[in-house]
Each structure stands twice: as structure tokens, then as C-alpha cells.
From TrEMBL, chain A:
Domain of life of the organism encoding this protein: Bacteria
Protein name: Uncharacterized protein
Species annotation: Pontibacter mucosus
From TrEMBL, chain B:
Domain of life the protein comes from: Bacteria
Name of the molecule in the record: Ferritin
Alphabetized InterPro entries for the sequence: Ferritin (IPR001519), Ferritin-like (IPR012347), Ferritin-like_diiron (IPR009040), Ferritin-like_SF (IPR009078), Ferritin_DPS_dom (IPR008331), Ferritin_prok (IPR041719)
Naturally occurring in which organism (per UniProt): Pontibacter mucosus
Biological function: May alleviate iron toxicity in the presence of oxygen.
Entry keywords, A to Z: Cytoplasm, Iron, Iron storage, Metal-binding, Oxidoreductase
Length: 132, 178
């Protein structure tokens, strides 16, 4: 994905637009995608038509927050306040207000991205080990 | 593609989490010892009150050691919340029984962490834990010896007073003297 393409998704990348380098795509689902910017050590979450730039810490916090949401309770509760979940985390300037289906989609997207981050970490370790 | 996870911290998420759980456990142990000190104080067991106060300080120091390690490794050390600490105890003896049970729980917890470190191949944290595992030998020894005083001296007559006096004198000899 090119910066020019991403820039149309949000204003956060304005400061990075001086280069047209490609961003590695970490994980994609029907609901969105997560990219990694090696230049700034940031992750970019493209979800529900908006792009959010996150430090790794904030990404992990967001994942923990989303994982904590009880989807079964949301689905079974007749209370109107259970129709949506509000997700805000420190280090992320976006407030997610999501219905059940989108919470599920975000959960799946973040889990997939986290898995690939861990896989990348393992690959780095294997490559380092092969050099010894 | 850069390894952002490893750049952030040398600790895996699992190890960071269990170390933070241990930080909380040490904080709770410190608070519990302080509660025991308070109980002993208001029931006239002056020496034991001082002993438990000292134990409380030691547990807090353990907590800070763990806290520093997590921070030093680039992890997120969490200052724990400590709630619902027991205030009353059934008897002088039950205080010491509970103290021993607490130390056993701490030892078991460190064993589980060491086991987890080996499974995750985190030998840096495993080495760091050695100090705590060794420390638990002394902690359990002292707690067990204190409880044994109730059998050796007996609580009748001035027994409790004698036990109280003996408690702070219990010392663990690290080296074998032949």
C-alpha cells in the first residue's frame, strides 16, 4: 500500500507523506487492515473507513480492551446500552463506538495482526540464531 | 519488517503479565504482614509486632525489585491496588499459621514463574528469579520455625509471652556449620 493511498483514509499520515515508500501489510480482513511503518515504528489500523496511527503500546492496549468485551453478554442483553461498545484507550485519539458485528470484526483484525507481529518476532529470532 | 515487539521490550507479554501479578502478590503480602503487626500490637505481642513490621518491609522491597526489573526490561510495571486486607485474626497462633501459608503460596508462585520462563526460553528472567527462589528458603524456614515455637514452648502460663520474645530471634543460617 502506498502512502498516497493511505493519506486519503485519514489525516494522521500527513507528516509521513514526504516519501512514497511501501508499508508492509501485517494483516488484512474484510473489515480492514493493519500496516506497519518501520520508519516511525508505528502501526496503522485501517478500520471502518478511518485510519488510526498507533504506537505498539497503544495497539496492545486497544487489543486488550477489545478482547475484554463480552460479546455473548452484548448479544444476549436486551438493554439498549448493550447495542454498542465504546472503546477508548490511552495513546489512541480515536474513540470507537461499535455495534456487536464491528466489535467482532475489530477483535478478529487485531488478533490477526498481533499473531503476525509475534510470528515476525519469532522469524527474527530464528534468523539471528542461524547466524550464530 | 522491523520486530516492533522485541524493540519495545525484552519481556514477552505473558512474562510481563505474570511478573505484574507477582508484584501484586508481594504488595498484598506486605499489607497482610502489616495487618498482622497491627493485630499483635493491640493484643500485647510487642516483639511479634516488630517482627511482622519488618516482614512487611521485606515484602515491599521484593515488590520493588520485581517492579524495577519489569521497568528496566522495557516492560510496563503496574503499581498494584491492594484491597480487603484482613484486620482480625482468631488467635496468636493463627497469625503465624497464616504467615506460613502466605510464604508457601509465594514460593509456589515463584516456582510457577520459573517454570513459565523455562517454557518461554526466557533465561534472563529465569536468572533474575534465582534471588527470590533462594530468599524463599529463608522466608519459609523462619515462618515454620516461628510456628513450631507454639509446640516447643506451649501457650500455657507465660508461654505466649515466651513465644513472643523468641520470634524476632529466629535466624536462618545460610551456611552449613559442621
Amino acid at each position: 500500500m502506498h502512502y498516497q493511498q493511505i493519506s486519503s483514509l485519514g489525516s494522521h499520515l500527513f507528516y509521513m507523506m514526504h516519501t512514497a515508500a511501501q508499508l508492509p501489510e501485517i494483516y488484512t480482513s474484510e473489515a480492514g487492515a493493519v500496516y506497519q511503518c518501520d520508519r516511525h515504528n508505528r502501526l496503522m489500523l485501517s478500520f471502518a473507513g478511518e485510519l488510526t496511527v498507533l504506537k505498539l503500546d497503544a495497539f496492545l492496549r486497544l487489543k486488550r480492551s477489545v478482547d475484554k468485551i463480552d460479546l455473548d453478554a452484548m448479544a444476549s442483553s436486551p438493554d439498549r446500552s448493550s447495542d454498542f461498545s465504546i472503546i477508548t484507550v490511552c495513546g489512541c485519539d480515536r474513540c470507537f463506538v461499535l455495534p456487536l458485528t464491528e466489535v467482532y470484526a475489530l477483535k478478529e483484525l487485531l488478533s490477526g495482526a498481533k499473531f503476525v507481529l509475534e510470528l515476525n518476532s519469532m522469524l527474527h529470532e530464528c534468523l539471528n540464531a542461524s547466524l550464530v | 519488517m522491523k520486530d516492533l515487539l522485541r524493540l519495545r521490550t525484552s519481556l514477552s507479554e505473558t512474562i510481563e503479565q505474570i511478573l505484574n501479578e507477582q508484584i501484586k502478590m508481594e504488595a498484598e503480602a506486605s499489607a497482610m504482614y502489616l495487618a498482622m503487626s497491627s493485630w499483635c500490637d493491640r493484643n500485647g505481642f510487642d516483639f511479634s509486632a516488630g517482627y511482622f513490621k519488618q516482614q512487611s518491609d521485606e515484602e515491599r522491597e521484593h515488590m520493588l525489585r520485581l517492579f524495577k526489573y519489569v521497568s528496566d526490561m522495557g516492560g510496563r510495571a503496574i503499581s498494584p491496588s491492594v484491597n480487603n486486607i484482613q484486620v482480625e485474626f482468631d488467635s496468636f497462633r493463627s497469625v503465624f499459621e497464616q504467615a506460613l501459608q502466605q510464604e508457601i503460596a509465594v514460593t509456589q508462585s515463584f516456582n510457577r514463574i520459573a517454570d513459565k520462563c523455562q517454557k518461554e526460553k526466557d533465561y534472563v528472567t529465569f536468572t533474575f528469579l534465582q534471588w527470590f527462589l533462594k530468599e524463599q528458603i529463608e522466608e519459609e524456614y523462619v515462618a515454620r520455625r516461628a510456628l513450631e515455637l507454639f509446640e516447643v514452648i506451649g501457650e500455657e502460663g507465660t508461654g505466649q509471652y515466651e513465644i513472643d520474645k523468641r520470634v524476632p530471634k529466629i535466624k536462618y543460617e545460610n551456611e552449613y556449620e559442621g
